[in-house]
Design a protein that fits this description.
alpha+beta; Phosphorylase Kinase, domain 1; Transferase(Phosphotransferase), domain 1; three-stranded antiparallel beta sheet; about 15% strand; globular; CMGC protein kinase; transferase
Amino acid sequence: MNAMRRSLTRNTCRVYKSKDFYPAKPGEVLADRYQILVKVGWGTTSTVWFVRDMRSNEDEPEGVVALKIANTNSHIADNECAIEQYIAGKDSSHRGLAVLRTSSECFEITGPEGRQVCLAYEPMREPLWLFRRRFNDGMIPLPLLKAYIRILLVGIDYLHTECKTVHTDLNLENIMVSFEDPAVMGDFMNDHFDQPMEYKIDSIGRPVYRRHNDFGPLRQLRNIIPKIADFGHCARLDCDDDWGIYPIQPDHYRAPDIVLGCGWRMSTDIWNLGAILWDLIEGKELFSQVYDEEGQYQAKAHLAEMIALLGPPPQEVIARYRSLLEYEWPQPMATVDDSVYDSSNQFFGGPFFDSDGKFLYNNLVPDRNLDDTLPSLEKKERENFLSFVRLMLAWHPEERKTARELLEHPFLRLK
């Protein structure tokens, strides 16, 4: 197995540390090229700004670039820069490359606390979680959603087959949509040229600028393309005997092979995408009991819900899990709350199955079934969708269809 190690949050929020962030200010020029204009996003490891590329005609909206400024000494940004350069250069003829939002430039700046990595991107309208709110009842119409799923599968096919890379972190924040018309961004920028950015002063006297990311109602549906973003947690598995072994994926979307410590490959992304579809179709997560009352991830409850919705895991999966119970990672893994773990079993709080293959927490298995999780779909459409998604949400990783195979499913056919 390929030892892939990272520091995870384990549902523990990072403490905000002002000094970790670069103190960007509107009007400042970075790398003698990019003039900072307006803050459009932030996360625990970076801020994102629209900037003017001073090598372009400043009167053209195309001269605006989204610049991600990573926190001081961010190792995630280093991986993101390297993997995106690899992805962009692998096969420019594959149509899936256009679905992956990779950086056009990567450079370093020196902030007050040290080295910081910057990545320049095509500006995008918004992530899917915000985009869906543009529609009635906050739901993207199903015909349009099918088209977007097809596009995303083409991008994932390129990532998996050509790049041999697992995204590991698919969620509604990391799938973005393009602008429907350049005028939307142009009008947004003109509005912000006329007024100074609002800010507050933090505990160490630094200005913290307000994020502006509302581009208003959609002007049309044509020309909007979803793109997969944020490759900082990606893992390359170049050889057939390469396996990831450390925990990955957002809690709600985590595949059983991760929780059971059975090793993972490209099919974990397929499970991840399948679980996301409930957020888009029903507006809520498929797995609703993954946290306890204190907000801590509970793997045993998550597995119990998988059993309720998908049936018990095959004995082959349980046997592999049992055979790896004593396996320890080559290096311990630390979480942001300074806990240290030596194995998947320790990290996720196992064991979960006894020597006879019996689940140890049957009392947690809820009275739910998969059919009832889709009340918004009519019977025929629900049957087609479940036929499609069961090829993604399979206990056994090898039973999950590839992105290319899923593209042929009747559910995605546009009438």
